Amino acid sequence: MATAMDTVLDMRDAIAEKEEGEAAAAKVRKVDRDQRQTVGVPFVDEPRMTCREVNVYYGEKHAIHDVSIDVGKNEVLAMIGPSGCGKSTFLRCLNRMNDTVATCRVTGQILLDSLDIYDKKVDVVPLRAQVGMVFQKPNPFPKSIFENVAYGPKIHGLVSNKTELTDIVEDSLKKAGLWDEVSDRLEQPGTGLSGGQQQRLCIARAIAVRPEVILMDEPCSALDPIATATVEDLITELKTQYTIVIVTHNMQQAARVSQRTAYFHLGDLVEVGPTDRIFTNPRHQLTEDYITGRFG
Amino acid sequence: MSPSMLVTVVLALSTLAFWQGKRRAFALSRQASTTRMHSRPGYYGMLTALWCAVPALVIVVAWQSASDPILTRIVMDGVREAKGALSPDQLNLMINDVRNLVSGSIYSQNVDPVLQLAAKRYQSMMHIGNMAMAVLALSTALGTAYYAYSRIKPTLRARNHVEMAVEILLTLCSTIAIFITVGIVLSVLFESIRFFQQVPLTDFLFGLKWSPQMAIRADQAGSSGSFGAIPVLTGTFLISGIAMAIAVPFGLMSAIYLSEYAGPKFRATVKPLLEILAGVPTVVYGFFAALVVAPLIRDIGLSFGLSVSSESALAAGLVMGIMIIPFVSSLSDDVINAVPQSLRDGSYGLGATKSETIKLVILPAALPGIVGSILLAVSRAIGETMIVVMAAGLAANMTVNPLQAVTTVTVQIVTLLVGDQEFDSPKTLAAFALGLLLFIVTLVLNVIALYVVRKYREEYE
Questions:
Q1: B361–A132 C-beta distance less than 8 A
Q2: A30 Rama class: left (phi>0) / alpha (psi -120 to 50) / beta
């Protein structure tokens, strides 16, 4: 572990040296952005994920500036902010989904239970099994409902026979609150379900690989209010077993499902705090403006 | 006035009608008293032009197609009166003579005066007919154009009328394609029926010997003529099979590489290069197969102690496979690219590797398109002629040994129809029967593939 840390620090030093010329300019920006220093306490006592000074670049574009935040065990952390503020980008750093974007570069440190996930020795395949993801638009595979849920356990070799697989599928669908609706038609295509059912199928699919953390990227933005309510209930239930990070545009949703809320603004983490406090008594002007609907 | 001249004049008139109609509509729209025009002036012009050209052109086409049979009949009635009773064959011969006289392509000294007279009559009547047609067509064009012109009013819904005309035009174009297809199939079918009147269907379908030489005279030797299609079909399937065995793996894998692994720059360079393979004329592939690949295979075979004929199915199949790689790769690449990124994200998000994602998610989702591209390649392989003529030989051996010379359906059609032919001998008609067989085989393949695609289709939208 120590060597891994050293490597990361070395790498950061190297980057710092390389960008020495830009340092002056960066300082000027820092001063400009002083008013956007994170307000509130982003750290928790028993973190499941620890992020320190995370920066993300898309080519030349600096998308995330020095974000430091913890994600606690069995909590729902909501990330809110106006469009393009970098909350989805940050979320995709947590399971290295940004690796699939060729121009994307991430610096800083992200730990999952003290494992540096950006360490060169880390294999992204088990990492993504530990940190599952649910996407904005429901994206079930064009396979049967059963095959959709069985996909993850099969590729990770979590099961040794058909009975275990059936058990995992049933268990995951039950946890996702979909079992009663689909138990009699598991062989039908997952794409034939309604939007809300599809999204719960995607959640079941993510649960089936037994993750520790589930990342949700606006999971309800393509759903109607009734389906949204079902998914929100589900999130509240899942919280007892998993750690959940949810990005949402819907502030009521953040208020309903999360314990802590982080407000992002143009790539900065502006304010973090208990959800009740953020929505009743925001400390930062930008947060207040956003949640009172002055912009965003 | 000749018909082509007439068509030009009608089109010129309709251009004039367009401008006149447009001007009138424009003038109307400027009058303060009139209500707002329904359509823009161009539509009124278009409508006038259509009214001017379409009825006149219909008359020209109808007249042209009807006049020749009618004139021939009148003229031949005259000939029959002068000559007395004639057999149909003789009559046909005379009609031909008259036609040739009319077009001036007979320079013989001793032309039958009766026929000469008939040709003169034909010419003069045709002349009168053309004049009458011109008068009728031009007056119709003017009349209908004036009718449309006089109807230009703010309430006339010219835009919708033009829209309808466009729809009719498009419908006509699409039906013409269907009619032509039906016509081709029917012509092949009728010639095949003539063939099957002389050679039994069962002999053709189940015969194991293909040797289409027929005696032209009764006393000619060495000419039994056996028309068993099985050896020829075997050859076709053998060569197509070899070609697909090359094209499908190479094409599919290069498609996967191009769409999933290659960088955008590499892809932009390599994809057009691969597609060039499809643009090389098949004759060139033919040389390549006959002069490079076939000798190479023979030499390699000899060094292993195998007897390889210098024209082999393997050589033709290999080169044909190379030729159809781009069909498979380019189409499959497009289909794989069309699989939504969200499915890839979903799979990566569950911790799947790239190759697992390709194998389990992308290929199943792209399957219908991939099958489609393979099918296109198969029909291309079955229909390919040039490479096989040059590299696989003409001998109708019934074999599945790829090292021997074989022949294919298309090659046999070519050899049957090359040179001077009489169109009622079974030898020539066999070409049509083979054509029909090929058509049915490809049709069946298509139906099977459609069924497979529908059954295993994975909807992702």
A1: no
A2: alpha
| Closest CA–CA distance from residue B362 to any residue of chain A (Å) | 9
- What confidence tens digit (pLDDT) does each residue in B200-214 have? 888 888 888 888 776
Q: What is the pLDDT of residues B365-375, one digit of tens each?
A: 888 888 888 88
Question: From CA B141, how far away is CA B6, in angstroms rounded?
Answer: 11
State how far the Cα of A107 lies from the Cα of B278, in Å rounded to an integer: 47
User: Which pLDDT score, from 0 to 100, does residue A15 have?
Assistant: 52
Candidate ranges A121-125, A202-206, B67-71, B384-388; pick with highest mean pLDDT? A202-206
Chain A hits for B346, Cβ within 8 Å: 135, 139-141, 202, 205
In this prediction, residue A6 carries a pLDDT of: 54
The whole-angstrom separation of Cα B279 and Cα B137 is 46
* A residues 109-138 closer than 8 Å to B (CB): 124-129, 132-133, 135, 137
Closest residue, chain B, to A129 (C-alpha): B351
Q: What is the pTM of this model?
A: 0.72
State whether residue A143 sits within 8 Å of chain B by CB.
yes
- In terms of phi and psi (left: phi > 0; alpha: psi -120 to 50; beta: otherwise), the region of A2 is alpha
Q: Which two tokens stand for residue A189?
A: 């295509």
CB A90 within 8 A of CB B312: no
CA-wise closest residue to B358 among B344, B345, B378: B344
Angle between helices B3-30 and B41-83 (to 10 degrees): 160
- Cβ neighbours of residue B397 closer than 8 Å, sequence gap 6 or more: B231, B235, B404, B405, B406, B407
Residue A73: burial class (beta carbons within 10 Å; 0-12, 13-18, 19+): middle
Q: Which residues, in sequence order, are bridge partners of residue A214?
A: A132, A244
Rounded Cα gap, residues B269 and B271, in angstroms: 6
Asked if B352 lies within 8 A of A189 by C-beta distance, the reply is: no
A:B CB pairs within 8 Å: 76
DSSP state of B261: I
Q: What is the pLDDT of residues B116-143, one digit of tens each?
A: 788 888 888 888 988 999 999 999 999 9
Angle at B131 between CA B130 and CA B137, to 5 degrees: 85
For the stretch A89-140, pLDDT in tens is 999 999 898 888 878 889 999 999 888 998 888 888 888 989 999 998 899 9
3 state SS of A105: strand
What count of other Cβ atoms lies within 10 Å of the Cβ of residue B453? 16
Domains of chain B: 3-156 (no CATH), 226-456 (1.10.3720.10)
Q: How far apart are the first and last CA of chain B?
A: 60
Q: Which pairs with CB-CB distance under 8 Å and at least 24 residues apart come from B178-184?
A: none
Output the six-digit token pair for B377: 């390649």
d(CA B98, CA B328): 55
Instruction: Tell me which architecture the domain covering A43-142+195-291 has in CATH.
Output: 3-Layer(aba) Sandwich (3.40)
Alpha-carbon distance B235 to B209, whole Å? 13
Is the pLDDT reported for residue B422 higher than 90?
Answer: no
> Average pLDDT, stretch A170-178?
90
Could you give the ipTM of this predicted complex?
0.80
Note the residue count of chain A. 296
Tokens of A75: 């909590």
**Is the Cβ–Cβ distance between B316 and B287 less than 8 Å?**
no
Is residue A73's pLDDT more than 80? yes
Token pair belonging to A90 = 């940050």
